[in-house]
Each structure stands twice: as structure tokens, then as C-alpha cells.
Fold this sequence. Notes:
This protein is of the alpha/beta class. Helix 16 packs antiparallel against helix 19 (514-521) and helix 16 packs across helix 20. The two termini are 50 Å apart.
Amino acid sequence: MTKQFEIMLNGKRQLIEENSVLNVLRSEEVDVPSLCYHPSLGAIETCDTCIVKVNGEFVRSCSTEIKPGDVVESVGSDVHEAQLIAMDRILGNHELYCTVCDFNNGNCEIHNAVKEMKITHQETEHTSKESVVQRNSFYRYDPDQCILCGRCVEACQDVQVTETLSIDWGLERPRVIWDKNSPIDESSCVNCGHCSTVCPCNAMMEVGMEGEAGFLTGIKDDSMRPMINITKNVETGYQSLMTVSDLEAQLRESRIEKTKTVCTYCGVGCAFDVWTKDRQILKIEPQAEAPANGISTCVKGKFGWDFVNSEERLTKPLIRDGDGFREAEWEEALDLIAKKFKLMKKQKGADALAFISSSKCTNEESYVMQKLARAVVGTNNVDNCSRYCQSPATMGLWRTVGYGGDSGGIDDIAKAELIISIGSNTVESHPVLATRVKRAQKLHGQKIIVADIRRHELAERANQFVQPAPGSDLVWLSAVTKYIVDQGWQDQAFLDQHVTDVEEFMASLDKYSLDYASEVTNLSKEELIQIATSIHEAKTTSVLWAMGVTQHGGGSDTSTAISNLLLVTGNYMKPGAGSYPLRGHNNVQGASDFGSMPDRFPGYQYVTDDEVRAKFEKGWNVQLPAEPGLNNHEMVDAIHDGNLNVLYLKGEDMGIVDANANYVQSAFEKLDFFVVQDLFLTKTAQFADVVLPASPSLEKEGTFTNTERRFQRLYQVLEPLGDSKPDWKIIQEIANRLDGNWSYTHPSEIMAEAASLTPLFAGVTYERLEGYNSLQWPVKEDGTDTPLLFTDGFALPGGKARLWPVEWTKPLQFEEEYDIHVNNGRLLEHFHEGNMTYRSEAITKKTPREFLEVSPELAKERGIENGTKVRLTSPYGQVNVRCLVTDRVKNKEVYLPMNTSGEGAINYLTSSHSDKDTDTPAYKEISAKMEILEAKGENPLPRINHRNGNPQPQMGVRIEDKWARADYTFPGDLVKERRAAKNG
């Protein structure tokens, strides 16, 4: 319970809780200006406008902690004078031309402070800093409007932790700089947008806003300056300027829409407002109340929305005509689909058809897709892309703890004393989540261990970085677990009370000695002991893992080994601990949660369970198939075998993202009928017989479920482009042509139906998810959710977890000629194969193509340099790609990002080999031979890519450097000097 005590506030006694003076004043609704303070950033102490008196002394209220008995004065002529001095300095740095400013949207904090303080003029004349406006394709910085509040620096250094921005306090006129005073595009800036989000004025601003927000803001520079000067000459004071600009700001509300949505890219689940003018996206504005991300975004979420208005969007149905397509009306396309579906079902039965749902679509759309398969067509042949990445993690957690989701939330990850990241390029794959890890380490001393075969950013920041042999994670995890037990470091009380099968599991560890693990993994015994010791010494440990673990032949077993280690050490059932399999797509969690799986109804209820099946039969008023269907891996084999003839796929570029792409694409060619539903004519859609134009997230309503099991609503921002439609509407029209008799009018009705049949999220309603509200499953019928799992026991019989013995599955072996191991994964700038992000000119300019990371050792051995074009050939296919020489990889390990659907696409190399328990492709088990095609060539990574930058880490804005300047005096001291001189 928070401690309460009494203070004196402006002559009145108040009972308050421990906090900063500024927060106490705000809680008591006492207005104090505070231009550098931001609730998500804390006290920065640059602006001095929040000065008050505490016990007779002038202090900055943002950084002064209240104490029992304090006497606080926020009013009075001397306090007001100090605040005015601070505000006057700000106006010397910022020119007020509000009516013609793109930032005059009611949220300019300088404008609002001038108005609230009733300032009519300024003593310090605004003068130029004589520095050019900095800009790139995402945002711009105007030094002459910058008040040097330092919010952008604080956000960059200590929230995003890219550590690019600083204020050069040594300049005659200080300003914000990038790296060591580089242009933005030549710096380490990752264009996350934090700086423009937190800027209190128009100094840092999204370029999408320039000349677009106001009625008078599209004026060219050569006309703008005379207009500003004329306005200044006729204005009688700032209050009349404020009045006019307030009126103009109100008028803007009539044409600028601000709509809350949830990001369509990775699984972090960032939520934010989208500012639009007609179909034009002006900016993305994250809000502090967004539960997963707060004020944070990455380059994709902040700036990667050009695809929505792309001229390449599908806007009408397409029907195959010979070797190409012709446009068609909806009636013709849907009638053709219904005809073909009915014919095939009649000829070969329902199991001759299959359905693949999308991790990009909403929960409601996943629900109706699997309902179409089961209740209308009559088959359990339905799956989603979690088969490609997360199914093994889910399996490992089902075995051991009963729920296949993150143990807690992103806040729990940030609270952990120790983070272990295994096979996860977190900074690039889950960038906003990674900021929480980096911030916790930098500001609070959290310890990080990274196990990966590639040296990425989190590995470079880690307290311990180990590089196990590819595919050997299960062995070192089990060896660390055994060492902990051998030392007596296990949490015996936890095991006795909460875990079963302990003795059998302990016996299974015998083979995993340090000597054996060191031999298999290439890690030293000292490294293994250090990992074990760190876990033992930490009160809470959280483990993050991703595709580097799951995409192996033994991915489920390795995921199980992670959970075993956490159970043995008691790292469940408490905040800051647990298992966190990071979901790669925005709704890959929800796609499975809502039943797009061959063996489970929504909420992971088995189709083989007679009682469960009877419940759905009653709810849907149909007879349902009892046998599990085909997963997407099995579907491809069934097509080749002639047992699957019709495929309906939405929102997945399966022909390029599934393993062994040549084999998959040849399967598509064998289909009798193939329907693809997407935004663009993807590689997969090019094989279709009918292509249906779907709508992206900004053009529909629904919910997504992020990596931390969090339901969030997205609202329609724009009308569907052309004749495109939301996926749920398309699926309903197909269902009704197949006699489904559905009558949904809004996604909320779909959610209500799903919740009524699914105990896991029985209490989820659109009303409870209004605005930025969210719920984390399980959600009881009364709306009570579960941010932290297992506090009342595990989701297994008896409420106890289960230790599960595992055996190591050796990685796929290749002939000696295939001597290069090809690692692969995601890239910060592009999402997956880039179908959406390559439509952004700004992002594409930064990273225009795929590239192959090659180690300096291999480059020297083979005569490779930046730009060398090579061919990699595996037993399953080949890719052609240009090289980038970097020490992020070593020896004969290379790294090929998956950001292309062209000749460099990784899945032309991968095999059909898969995890033995879930059929997840073993994407990470690839070896190839290399030949040089062109010795010389253009560097595939432009000079303007952030990887070529030179970040400058520091804590915050280095405010002491400002205070040490000869031209700086604390306003409170100035007031005291003036009053002393006057009274003396």
C-alpha cells in the first residue's frame, strides 16, 4: 500500500501519496507549466517551466520528490516570475506562427502554455540557430523551432535505446544532433518515430504532416516567411494570436480523422491513432495508454502504411483466363467458387477441400474461416501459418504447463532480473518489445543472456553471449538444468507443491553432462556454468525464444526443455518470470486461438472430444466431422498425392513462405481449383484460379490477439479501396452460397458467438475492449482477465505442471559439398517477404533488396566483398543474392533475411524436413554450396542504412552539461537576485 502523509499546499493541508511534486500538483488539479516533462519519459529538467517553491526554495517540481511536512507553493509572484523567465527562454528558441503551423492541432504544448500563462509578449527575441533543417523521408527536424526540451533525446536514448540522438550542449547555440553530428540518413537512426511522437511542438515532425494539416500550411517557404512577418506586425499580442490559431485548430477537426487501430505487422500488438485526411495518412500517433507499446513504435508501425493506398492493390476479383487473369464482378467470382466447391465435395467428399487462414487477419475472420471449413463444407482441413513458426513452442507449453501462450505480459519481461533470449533476433523481429528489454538493462541493471548463432544487436548488448552449434539448444538447456539440480539449486518447494513427474524427469537428465553438452554444442563448460549460476542468482528469470528454436526437427522438444528449466527453478507463477515464445505476426496467436487448426476448435478444444463437438454442433446447428484434418504441411503432400483438390487460402503468401518453395509451387499447379484472397497479386496468387480482393486492417473492424495473449480492438479508418471487401464479409458470402445461412452484420456478433462457445475467452466483448481497453486470456464470463498465468495453478489435471523428458533430435545432415550453413530470419525494415513494406518508397530506399551476410573469414577465403553476387545451391533449389561482409556471422555461417519473394527467397533452399511433433518446417536446417556469379557489384545495403551509423550511448540528455554552460542561470536564482537587488 502506498504511503500517505500530510503536506501544506498553497496554504492548505493535504493528505497525499509519495510522488514527485509535479505529479502531486497534477493530482490536485493545480496547473503548472511543464514543457520537457512527459509521463512516459519522466523528469528531464531542461525547460525549468515547472518551478515551484518547496520549503521556501525554488525547485523543479518534476524532479523533486515530496516529503512529509513539505510546504509547497505553486502560486505567488516570485514563482510566476521564475516560470515566466523559463518560458521566455523557450520562446527565444521557438517562433510562434501557430495559425500556419502544421502542429497547431490542439496538442502544441508551447501554444497551450503561452495561452494558459496569459503571456502577451516575450523579452528574449527569437533568433535563428543558423543550422539547416534536417530531414529524411520519414521526419524532419527544424532547429529554429526546437526548444531543447530533450524529450526526443530521452526517448531515443532511454526508451527506444537506439542511442542516436543527443543535444550538443557545447555549441554556441545548442541543437539536437544524430550520432557525431551526422545527417539523419547517414546516422544510426532506425526511424522508429519516438522523437516526433514526444516532441511538444513542430520541431520534430512527421513529413506526412508537412503542408497537410492546416488550412494555411501548404504555403511554399518563400511565401511563408513574409506571411509570418506580416502576421507579427499586425498582432497586438500573443493572446489574439492564440485565439485565431485556436479557431483554425478547431476547423481542422472537421477534416482530420483520428482513429485507433492495432498494428498489422509483428506480434507485439502496438496500438495507436491513425491521423487521416480523406484517404491520406498524415501520421501515426501512439498513446501512453496503449497497453503493449505506450508511446513506442517501430519504422513499420509508424511509417509503413503506404501499401494501403498502393496502386498495386487488388480492387476487383480476378478469374484465370488462359495464362493470365481477367477482372470480374463479385457475383461471377463467388458463383464460380460455390460451383467448384459443391462439385468437388459431391465428387470426392468434403476432405478433398482445404482451407488456410491468415495470421494477418482478425480473430473474427479466423473464426469464420474455420467455421466455413467445418460447419459448411464439412472438413477439419484448416490451418494457419503458426505451423511455420510457433506450433512447437505451443506444443512445449501444452505439455508442461497447459497453456500455449506467454506466461505474462511485456511488463513482466521488463521486470525480470534475468532475461534469456534463445534463437530470437528480438530487436529486429519484435522491436518495441526489445526496447523494454534494452531499457530495463540500461536503466535498471537487468541482466541479459543471449544464445544465438548470429551476433545481432541484443547479442552485442548482452551480459553473456553464447553461440551454440546450430540446432543444439536442447542439449545445453538440459545440461544447465542438470547442473542446477546437481548443485542443489532447484526450487524444491515449488517442485513439491506444483509439479508432477519430477523423479522420472530428473533421471532423464543423466546423459546431459557438462562434458557431453560441451562436445555437442561447442560451448565451454565455463559458459554453461555461468548461465546456470546467473539463473540461480536471479530471483526471477524470463526466457524469450522464437524461430531459431522452433524451426528445427526437434523444435517442440527444445521448447519443452525451456519450460522444464523454468519449472525446475520455480520461474512460473510470479511476476517477472516465465516462458515467452514471441509471436511473429500481428495475429498468429489469435489465428490459432480461434480455431484455425486441424485438430482444435476455438479455444484449443479438441475436435475429437464428443462433448465439445456436441456443443459446437448445437451452436452451429450442423453435424461436424470428428477426425482431425490435414495441417498445411500435410496439405501440400496430399495435393501431390492427388488426395486434395481444392484449396482456399487467405492472407498468406504460402508459395514463398512455406519451406521447399519449388515443391509447394508445383503442388499449386496440380490443384483442380485454387482460391486466393489477398491485398496484392502475390507469388501465391499467381497460381490461383480466382483471386479475391481483400481489405487490410485499416479498412475494417475486428480484434487482434498479440504475443502476450492480449485482445485489442481495431476500428475502421478508411473505406475499402475499390471493390475490395473485409475478409469476414467475403467468407460469409461464400458460406451463404454454400447454404450456410449466416447473417453477421458486424464483427462484434462473430466475437459474441465465438465467446459463447469458448471458455478461454468467454468474457470478451467489444464493449469491454472499447478504445484502448484490452483483455488477456483466459477471460472469465464476468470479464476478469489473466495478465499473469498460473497464479491459481497450472492448466493441467490437478492444477500441477508436468516435467517432460526430452531427447535431442540431431539437425538434418547434408553431403560434404554443401559446406555453408544458411541461417535466416527477419529484418527490422521489411516484414516477412515484403509484400506490404516494399510499397513504402521510404523504407525501400533504406533497404531496397535482400542481401546475404557473409563472415570476414569466409569472404577472405572465397574472394568475396560487399556486392559480390553468389549462388547458393541446396539439394532442393537455389538462390542468387549479393553479399554483405559483416562480423555478425562467423566462419561458414551465412545469414539470409527473408525480405524478398524474388530469386533470393530463402525457401528455394529449404527442405520439407519438419519438427517431428508439429510438422513445422525445419527452416533453420539448411546447408548449401556457394559459387560466385559476379565478383564485383553494388553494395546491397545503401550507405543510408542505419547499420552503417555510429550510435552514441549516454544517459538521457546530459543535463549537467547544460547547467555548466556560462550562459545558464537557474531561473529561481535569477528571481532571488532581482528581488535582493530591488530590496537592497
